[in-house]
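can u pls check wat happens w/ zinc ion
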Amino acid sequence: MSKKPLILGIESSCDETAASLITESEQGLPIVLSNIVSSQVEIHKDFGGVVPELAARSHIEKIDLIVQKAISESGRKINEIDAIACTAGPGLIVCLSVGLSFAKTFASIINKPFIAVNHLEGHALSPKINSLLDYPYLLLLISGGHSQYLDVQNLGKYKRLGTTIDDALGEAFDKTAKLLGVEFPGGPQIEILAKQGNPEKYDLPKPIFNKGGCNLSFAGLKTAVLKIAKNIETEQEKFDLAASFQKTIEKILSKKTKIAFEQFEKNKTLKKKVFVVAGGVAANKKIRSMLIKLCEEKNYESIFPPIDLCGDNAAMIGMVGLERFKLKQFNDLDYPAKPRWPLDEKASFLKGAGVKL
Ligand code: KG4
Ligand code: ZN
């Protein structure tokens, strides 16, 4: 039996301190030995968003403990670890720096390679932990900071097909939740409120629905929700607004995904058409079922990470580390934290307020 790589993954780009040990089976399938995530929701909830200094302080307080826990739960020893993979961006620089300093120090003490991981690549590869997934595939990445359609051509090789020109989808969910008086992060709560409401009650705008290819925009939708939310008087109206918002998002994603399918298939001979949805918002069950149905209609295989791997975690960072380790793609210890680090470095910066790439 050959010795399989054992990777320690570390994540601290935003408000989750996370560590994971990951290896693979004789057949080359990933095995997550431990996956510890410590969320800071309680720390930030009164502020309605993540406060960078508080987040960094909490990472500093917890990182040793979380890594120790990940190692002890894995049943493996420190000296068995073959490499340390850590998120180097994109994210909050003060938060990234905590994980990075820890990972580099750890790597140099145990004298093992260090791998700097793009957080978005972690989300992109997260479904590989539980599914057999070959390149190329079409990815819809929907999280608190990003909303993009990407042609995933290979490890580290991405072509952006579309992106939001203003807010990210998770941000739109969180802002809508705040307007409805729901605590941060409100995305999951909107889904729950929506179940009790009438999705046809409010006719909300669908920005750039009929233009801009598979680019996305949610700022106008948020403004419309703001205006309606001001005049809401009953609990039922609140449920109806949540349901109408959820329904509008489904309509936008359905239309834009069809356009992304066409762009992805252009000039390609594909043995199999695969659509992957990842990032925090991929946990939304209504969005999942709508996209699964669309894939059935359009002859695509749909792949989602398990719900617990949709949000930020270190198993997905370890997953990238595992692939990079096998290709001996290591990084020097002076690798910087990169607050902005698009997966497709060649994609142009789209005009618009608060553009996220
Ligand atoms: O990927 P993630 O954990 O962190 C980032 O990298 O941003 O995504 C967090 C986002 C938050 O905006 C959260 O409200 C949203 O994902 N989210 C959801 C759901 N679960 C998490 N949005 C809609 N429906 C959900 N069920
Ligand atoms: Zn994320």
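The mean pLDDT is 94.
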